[in-house]
Amino acid sequence: MNPMRIGLLGLGTAGGGTYQILLRNREEIARRAGREIHVVTAAVRDLDKAKAKFGLDLRLTTNPEYVVDAPDVDIVVELMGGIEPARSLILAAIRKGKHVVTANKALLALHGNEIFSEAQKYGVMVAFEAAVAGGIPIIKALREGLTANRIQWVAGIINGTSNFILTRMRDEGASFADALAEAQKLGYAEADPTFDIEGIDAAHKLTIMAAIAFGVPMKFDQAYTEGISKLTAADIQYAEEFGYRIKLLGICRRTDHGFELRVHPTLIPERQLIANVDGVMNAILVRGDAVGSTLYYGAGAGAEPTGSAVVADLVDVTRMHTADPDHRVPHLAFQPDRLSDLNVVPIEGVVTSYYLRLRALDRPGVLADVTRILADNGISIEAMLQREPAEGEEQVDVIFLTHRTLESSMNAAIAKIEALTSIAGPAVRIRMESLAS
Question: What are the C-alpha distances in Å from 17 to residues 47, 53, 59, 138, 259?
Fold first, then answer.
């Protein structure tokens, strides 16, 4: 049987890792796929650099349109990143009847609905395992392995940079700024780390997982996103004293009113396995009605972990290349005409527990005022911690853990608490999740 011929758009970290895996494991991959998979051409930014690194056996070009148009390319693998020209190149490949494999989570979160619609129209596959959590096969698990289940919720540590920063802040008591600087020095964070530390990257990935878990279109524009840049080492330490750890979580959950789609720092009980995922590693916890809770753990980025997911997609596409399009696994797990337009619950409608830290004057009656406001807004207290003031200081940290309550009720309570003359500065509010059934 003739080899499946691949054209790479991008031969950087992910593209290079993919190419090396295809070369190193060529025989094993062919045994799994039923035919050989060959990279015949690749688009690169720097021809000389690519030739020096990968040799002269590969047909190289600086023109990505050449790869899309090449008659000897069966599958276009997009590993360039960004929105344009990646979007236009993928759509062009689809309209030429070529299958596509991509690791571009931002593109899919923003334009996946358009891309999948075109792929359905032209009868080709778009595979994207590498777009979420690197080498962890979470897309395949959600789309195929858990297909018997009604997925109740998904919660994941899906940004390694943020997880590395939070680990350093906890283990070493480092400030956010110092931990970020270390992440940049080690190459885990970009010079402009905004997408990572403000939760945008995680929201892209969460949007994709929610679409597959619940059978809905991509709804990135409705995701609530809050990053870790305002967290302090003090809050991380206080969380530890209560038996919790703080992680940047992406959470999507079914409710009676639609589904939640939110990314934010979250207190998790330290006994939970996912609370013990440290460094740059990723982990995703999925709750299904039949299987219960399942945990997926591994490297969320890097040349070979990402390449592993890309090659897995290439093998899947190769196996299904000649199959009737109607008999392939749908892009978003559910048949395209059976997608549901569930509402995204606004953050004000979310029900969860809270960590609340206040800077209060050390004088009688302050706690009574705060607890009265919480009670008036229907918020009950689970635990409380008050520090002794440092010598010469009149203000103390007071920390509350609350039972589950509506976010809008907490917002109203915080507004009234901050208006008290005995409270200095804004309150620190961090959401809490038990991740129980």
Answer: 18, 12, 17, 20, 36
- pLDDT tens-digit series, residues 339-371: 998 999 999 999 999 999 999 998 888 999 999
pLDDT tops 70 at residue 437: no
- Cα separation, 310 vs 304, in Å, equals 9
**Continuous H helices in 25-151:** 26-33, 47-54, 64-69, 86-95, 105-122, 138-140
Tell me the Ramachandran region of residue 299: left when phi exceeds 0, alpha when psi lies from -120 to 50, beta otherwise. beta
Enumerate the active-site residues: 205
Whole-model pTM: value is 0.96
Whole-angstrom distance, CA of residue 99 vs CA of residue 120: 11
Residue 327: per-residue pLDDT: 84
Neighbouring-strand partners of residue 107:
none
Does the pLDDT at position 419 exceed 70?
yes
Does the 4-136+303-338 domain belong in CATH 3.40.50.720?
Answer: yes
Mean pLDDT, range 11-18, rounded to an integer: 94
Architecture of domain 138-299: 2-Layer Sandwich (3.30)
Decide if pLDDT at 58 tops 90: no
CB half-sphere exposure, 180, CA atoms < 13 A: 18
Domain boundaries, the chain: 4-136+303-338, 138-299, 350-432
Decide if domain 350-432 falls under CATH 3.30.70.260: yes
Are domains 138-299 and 350-432 of this chain identical in fold? no
For 61-82, b/e burial (b = at least 16 CB within 10 A) is beebeebbebeebbbbbbbbbe
Q: Cβ(396)–Cβ(325) under 8 Å? A: no
Token pair of 75 as six digits: 């599958």
Query: Does the pLDDT value for residue 318 go beyond 70?
Result: yes
Maximal C-alpha separation, the chain: 83
Q: How confident is the model at residue 56 (pLDDT cuts 50, 70, 90)?
A: low
Residue 208 has pLDDT above 70, yes or no: yes
